[in-house]
Amino acid sequence: MKLSVIANLNQTFVMLAAFCLSFLSLPSAAQIEPPLLVPKIEATTIPSRQSVLTMKDIGASRPIELKGVNSNAYLSLGVRLDEIVTKAKLHLNYTLSPALLPNISHLKIYLNDEVLATLPVTKENPTGPQKLDVDLDPRFFTDFNKLHLQFIGHYTNDCEFPLHSSLWANISNMSTLEMNLQSIALRNDLALLPAPFFDQRDNRLLNLPFVFATQPSLSSLRAAGGIASWFGALASYRGARFPAYLNRLPERYGIVFATNDERPEFLAKYPKVDAPTISVMQHPENPTGKLLLILGRNAADLQLAADALVLGKAVMTGTSIAVKTLEYPPRRVAYDAPNWLQSGRPIPLGQLVNNPTDLQRQGQPLEPILINARLPADLFTWEVKGVPIDLKYRYTPPAEQGDANLRIEINDQFIEAIPLLSGAVSREKNHLLLPLLDDGSLREQSGVVIPAFHLGSNNQLQFSFSIPFSDNGRCKSSPQGNMRAAIDPDSTLDLSHLYHYAAMPNLAFFANSGFPFTKYADLAETAIVIPDQPNTFDMEAMFALLSHMGRSTGVPALHFKLLQTKSVQDAKDLDLLVIASGANKDLLASWGKSLPALLEKGSRTFTPLGKAMDMAYEWFGLSENKTPKSGEGTILLGSGSLAAIIGFESPLSPSRSVVAITSNTPTALTSALDALNDGGKVQYIRGDLALMRGESVESFRVNNVYYIGELPWWRWIWFHLNHHPLLLTAIGIAIGLFVALLAFGALRNLATKRLGQHKK
Predict the structure, then answer these.
(1) What is the pTM of this model?
(2) Percent of the chain beyond pLDDT 70?
(3) What is the C-alpha separation between 256 and 271, in angstroms, rounded?
(4) Best label site of 78, 684, 685, 725, fewest CB within 10 Å?
């Protein structure tokens, strides 16, 4: 990628340079860029906000249990680059064991290794739940913060068992951290990108306005779509939404798309550009706001500037750059999304974590080791025992053989528990490996198989080491705090024996990973169809869906095709993502025979609905075929809000898929977008029709399935014959008769030959 950087010169510097040149009588000229817009800021009040976060929001998915004489819990907290903490208070809800000794038992609160509070246990402490407000010194807050809770507990002044059942403290994950945050103005510098428009320190949903002229062109929306997918990949688990602003300023931050002939009115006096340009400027009405300008002479320039942003932010500095040339990466091949596990080979578990230390645990009790694994949605696991893991692990051996074990789960479903050996016991079944450096730990290797029916698009492997202390009697218990366990990074998960073949439509694939569109991570075989006159809800829906797919793949969508309804015939041999609010139903109405439902303003039409079957049946197409009779359907009249996600085979190309996001009113589209960003609702989206009514999501299987992907011919025949047992029986009988006839003929010929020889 080659980027040419054009610096914005300060007027004072220019005047000084001109004076020096004239003084030295040197005949030269300098070409100076026109000055940027001067913000017209009337208010001088710096904005601030109050943030209230529960411990659940910052990582405590369940109440925090602290056990033993010395137990710790850690929570991570980020503060945005453009904010500082001016006041902070921790509202702690906790319960202490009634057996704790006062004066020596206590709870410590650390912030970034600084002790900010100590909560002693006294005789006056009540035995039930307690509440306490703790002021936290704002001077100790940084960009990335670690909140550390340490429990020191004792139940006797004499010798004690470190993990006695009476040593515990419970902290509610609904405890809150209240912070007053003051906004600050950052410098205008592209080197800060993607901040402040996206800040990785902020765990909230990304809400970033996209700003256009009054009537944005299709090319402007196409350029914005690629950037939306990039921000979606950056936002990851947070999710992202991009409200469309037409000819108006956002409140604080926004991305502005403009050409020399198509721009919002507040940029009317902004100098025209002579090349694709990316600039950052101060918000005209907010002293702490910024606008990121994506500029071009025409549509081609605008697209080039947008692509340069998502591909080349690492070399951007200053307030403005012009893009002279841009080298695009090669088109991606199928199933090569960086966030997905690649099938066809064993995958080292070390490649699935950000840092090797994520595979290690220390202390007591040992926290679970969590590994996220995204799989291609269409992996064919029919009649497959499962996915094997060659697991290599190390741990501090318990003093004696007992209940120590390694518990393996996937998506909170139990898989296997492997007993852990003491140092004096050898294992016959599993191979024992001796470490080169003896650190007192054992290293073992075991084979584990994950059942195929537990696998989904998004998975989390959980490895929990349970190594209890040994109570050897009074004052003889093993020491505290020296327990270690780790999964070796060269442990592998093997997907080499799996093919890509699946029954469609399956909205669970789309809801969880954006499939089938994300089969190619750059969306090279995807066409997005929007109304001929899209409204802001249609635009926001398109950006949110592209963000959803960027979140799944981890890369921006550079090669999707954006079409209006009138040009849908240009999308042959492509998968279609159709966005249709209540204002545009002509396309879906023309495909009515293929649709399980059609929503229109004031009415909704359905073919007979059946509940979607279990996900395993959905994946393999084993659910009962639904063949609607001619003219069969139900028409209902009403004005209530209703949104739907519909899947069906493309009327334009066989074996190509269509997913339509539709609603009976434009505003109802947000219900579908909210459902896709809510993990609790995504699990209920499946089949070929998902309806969103308020907070509820219901899914149905209406039409027959079709299949995509490839299988070896013998597996293809066996799989499809398995759906028709009577036909399979008839074929078996026919083959048996054929073999019997062949055998009969061969034996008859042999008998004839023998009789002939006997007569001779």
Answers:
(1) 0.84
(2) 81
(3) 15
(4) 725
